[in-house]
Amino acid sequence: MYGGRASEHSAESRKPIPADWKATVSPRTHTRSFDQTLEALRAHSFDVAPWDEVAGGVLVTKHGAGAVLVAAADKGAPAAFAVRPGALLGGQVARLLDRGYQKFLKTALVELSATARQLHAIHLFSEELKQVTGAIELYNESLGTTSDLYLYDRLQGREDEQPAP
Known about the structure:
- The protein is an alpha+beta fold.
- The protein has one domain (30-157).
- 25% of the residues lie in helices and 27% in strands.
- It contains five helices and nine strands.
- It has helices at residues 21-24, 34-43, 116-133, 139-143, 158-161, and strands at residues 47-51, 57-62, 65-71, 79-89, 92-93, 95-98, 103-106, 111-113, 149-150.
- The strands form two sheets. Strands 1-2-3-4-5 form a five-stranded antiparallel beta sheet. A four-stranded mixed beta sheet has the order 8-7-6-9, with no helix packed on it.
- The chain starts with 20 loop residues before the first helix and ends with a helix.
């Protein structure tokens, strides 16, 4: 009761839920094809170009960062990463390498110290790419840029000391 009047949502005014209510509820997400995903990326100002180094690969770039996408094998997602997001260096997508004291950008030809601007570009690119493609967003990735490879110098060589199981 509010203000002395009976609530509009009293037991008499409620409508019963139909037995087949799931059939009437439309799904919140719809699955796109790989080509539809690429069109959505173009519509959101991503540059999309074929990538010859990976069979069926497409280079997607924006903000000075990029990734290579391929059509996903499973039906859950339209695209999968052939090359994870990284900064663009000399036309290549650089891997982010964490050495414990500093992050580096590494391609087949060069390894450079990563700048804050490059890390921000990778993070922004990754977030926008996930939103457009509908990829899973993980909590630890939302906190900042995650590296592809972690090579801490104080741990170097320890992996060789472990006996094989």
